[in-house]
From TrEMBL, chains A, B:
<protein>
    <recommendedName>
        <fullName>Cyclic nucleotide-binding domain-containing protein</fullName>
    </recommendedName>
</protein>
<feature type="domain" description="Cyclic nucleotide-binding">
    <location>
        <begin position="30"/>
        <end position="115"/>
    </location>
</feature>
<dbReference type="InterPro" id="IPR000595">
    <property type="entry name" value="cNMP-bd_dom"/>
</dbReference>
<dbReference type="InterPro" id="IPR014710">
    <property type="entry name" value="RmlC-like_jellyroll"/>
</dbReference>
<dbReference type="InterPro" id="IPR018490">
    <property type="entry name" value="cNMP-bd_dom_sf"/>
</dbReference>
<dbReference type="Pfam" id="PF00027">
    <property type="entry name" value="cNMP_binding"/>
</dbReference>
Length: 192, 192
DNA sequence: TTTCTTTCTTGTCTTTTGTAAACGTTTTTT
DNA sequence: AAAAAACGTTTACAAAAGACAAGAAAGAAA
């Protein structure tokens, strides 16, 4: 169960066995079914999640509409970082899109790990560096690319996700309406 | 000169005097005039910049057009993180918009600081956390808000920058054309 | 299976944006 | 001071996206 997690950590730093045991005992396993909220609107969250299996999305509600801003699958951390770090109530919702298996890390436990494991800061620093690069690319794509280009990029870079997530969620994730995505797809088919 | 930098670092961690001296000696001061490229297209970069004074932007070239993707002023780190971290050639350009004063940190020197200063990983981790929150907010704004809303948000959150940066650069930064921004501004004036 | 819900597509109409070019103004350079 | 470059706005037209509603298709639940 935690082997999968340490396959992930090994890409960043070489934790010693004692470190891994500390880490493993700090994280708790959680099995949740589809459509479960991991983080709720207007509440504080003190949990980070490592997704072992399944699929999650993060979304906002704007004018009564659900707008998906992030989608992720296996082997990644997710959380409402803003609320987690600053302690403020969070405006986003994180929910499962499939039955999912998670490792949950509590903020207090994380703070303890920073003290007890010397490599912990370096580990998180490296994860954040990777995450930042990804966010930078996503942000750049919004400025640089048209919705159609963003869709075709998603198609080529992450084809798997298209089978796991309903199109209307992908649409808002791309910054457009479901109607518009449907038309873009039609346009692409007609071209080929 | 470095006092200003340590006023910044103090917000994150309490470096000891010896640490600060190591840091100070690793960073070099650079004075550059307007329109100087700090990072160039298709070249690798091994430098990070802390902006003491002035204003910078990061931009891409798409279809011969300059598209600004980031603008920042005093007291922040900037760099082509992607190229800096992964060692690949970078597709963006960073240039000064005003005569600027910088502290420059080299990748090799940074790696040395990670070894010599125990708090260094924690310091960078905390900066990255803040940066990630900012990027997340920017990205969310692109998905959630209309160009007009993004402009009015920028207006209220960072009015100073409007006086320092030409409007056509702000336009692309907002993901729209200069023409469109001009129309949005007109629309806003007519409303009030 | 049958029903119910969710998802996807299509049509019409309106609004917004992009493109390209022109024009006046301001700023910078020589 | 004169010339050149950069900047901001406007116009006309084309392309794309949003809103809204209707209906088909697919999937889940009873």
């Amino acid at each position: 169960m935690t082997e999968q997690f340490f396959t992930y950590t090994d890409k960043f730093v070489n934790f010693r066995q004692a470190d891994k045991e500390l880490l493993a005992s700090a994280m708790s396993f959680r099995h949740v079914k589809t459509k479960t909220d991991l983080v709720s609107y207007d509440k504080r969250t003190d949990e980070l999640f490592f997704l072992l299996k399944g699929c999650l999305r993060k979304y906002y509600i704007k004018d009564g509409q659900q707008i998906t801003i992030y989608i992720t699958a296996e082997n990644s951390f997710i959380g409402a970082f803003d609320s987690f770090i600053t302690g403020t109530a969070c405006k986003e919702i994180i929910e499962t899109l499939e039955p999912s298996e998670l490792l949950v890390l509590n903020k207090k436990d994380l703070d303890k790990l920073y003290k007890d494991i010397p490599l912990m800061n370096e580990f998180v620093r490296k994860i954040l560096e990777q995450t930042l690069i990804q966010f930078q690319q996503a942000l750049t794509s919004f400025i640089l690319d048209s919705p159609e280009e963003r869709y075709t990029k998603l198609l080529s870079q992450n084809p798997e996700i298209l089978q796991r997530v309903p199109q209307h969620m992908l649409a808002t994730y791309l910054g457009i309406t479901a109607t518009s995505l449907s038309r873009i797809r039609k346009r692409i088919v007609e071209k080929s």
